[in-house]
Specification:
With 122 residues, this protein is an all-alpha fold.
Length: 122
């Protein structure tokens, strides 16, 4: 990645991904808060109680997947640096690779949850 324009495109994509996951997370939280409150007070439907349980499970799963993907990408980046690909542009590319790999499971889940919960009607 010696091209400054490629770096700028990658930076813009990262910014867009961050914006997209922020919006998806906001939608998901807005849809789930009433379900969580109802489940916590004992007035929740079986669907709300199941959604609350699944919410915790999926967060743990996405965290584990992100950790594994980030660790694997870090190992790949380390190997590339050790083999001489350590100029500044390559290092920036390696950092983007690690960040994207580590956050991809959570981004994917946040977008899917927002779509599913808003399609179901919250």
């Amino acid at each position: 990645m010696n091209d400054i324009f490629a770096f700028n495109r990658r930076l813009a994509k990262s910014w867009w991904d961050l914006t997209e996951v922020g919006l998806a997370a906001s939608q998901t939280i807005a849809a789930r808060l009433p379900m969580i409150a109802a489940a916590a007070t004992g007035f929740g439907s079986p669907h709300a109680q199941r959604e609350t349980r699944e919410m915790v499970t999926e967060k743990l799963q996405a965290t584990a997947e992100g950790f594994q993907a980030g660790a694997l990408q870090t190992a790949k980046a380390t190997l590339q640096v050790m083999t001489g690909q350590s100029h500044p542009a390559a290092m920036a590319n390696h950092m983007f690779d690690v960040a994207e790999a580590a956050t991809q499971p959570a981004r994917r889940k946040a977008r899917a949850n927002a779509k599913r919960l808003w399609t179901e009607g919250g």
